[in-house]
Amino acid sequence: MNIQQILTSEINQIIKSDFISAKNKVLKEMKEYSDLHELWETTHGGKLGPYGNFPALKSISVKLGKFCNNMRKNCKTICSECYAVDMLSYRAELNKRLENNYRLLTTSIIPRKNLPVITDKRFRFNSFGELENMIHLENYLEICRKNPETSFTLWTKRVDLVRKIKDKPENLILIYSNPLLNDVSIQKPKMFDKMFTVYTKKGIKEHDLDVNCLMKCNNCHKCYTKNNITQINEVLK
Ligand code: SF4
Known about the structure:
This protein is of the alpha/beta class.
C-alpha cells in the first residue's frame, strides 16, 4: 500500500466513524423526540398476565393523578386496594412513560393527525390511572373516532366527565368502575354500557353473586365486546 492509499483509507475510516456517530446522535434525538411526543402503549392481560387464547390487549394509560390520589385516602373505596400503586413503585421506566402520557393527554387537545393509528380489534384505555379532566376524555374520544375499526373500552369512575360527552363514538364501550368494594346499592349510571364491581370472597357469599370476571381479559373479552352482560363482578385478589 502506498502513502496515497494509506491516507485515503484513513480518511475513509474517519468519515465512516463520523457518519456512524452522527447517525447514532440523530437516532437518539429521534427516539427522545418520539418518547416525549407520542403516546406510549402497554400490554394489558388482566391480573393473571398477558397470555391467553387471543393476542394480548394493548392499552393507553396514565400515571395515577390527583383523582386517584384523593380516592385512595378513603379506605372504603376499591382505590385503597389499587394494584397499580404497588406495581408502579418498582417500575421506574413505566412510570416515566405513564407520566408522559398523562402530560400529553391532560394538558391540550392533540391534533387528530398526531393521534395513534391503531390496528388492533380491541383496545383498552386506562389499565392504570383515571380520567383527569375533560381534555383527557376528549383525546380518548378522538382516538376512537380516528380508529373506527377498533373497539375501545374505557373503565372510569368519573361520571361527572362522562355526563358531558355530547357525541359518544359507536366503537367505545364505557364501563362504570364502582368505587366501592362489596357494593350492591349503586346502580349503573345511564351513559355507561356496563358496571364493574369488586367484592371480597365474603361479599360474594353474602350477596349470593356470580363472579363473571375471569381476570384474564384476552381469554374473556366480556368487557371488550357489545353484549347483554351489564354487570361484571370480580373477586378481590
Ligand atoms: S370480565 Fe373479562 S374482559 Fe372484563 S375485566 Fe374481567 S377478564 Fe377482563
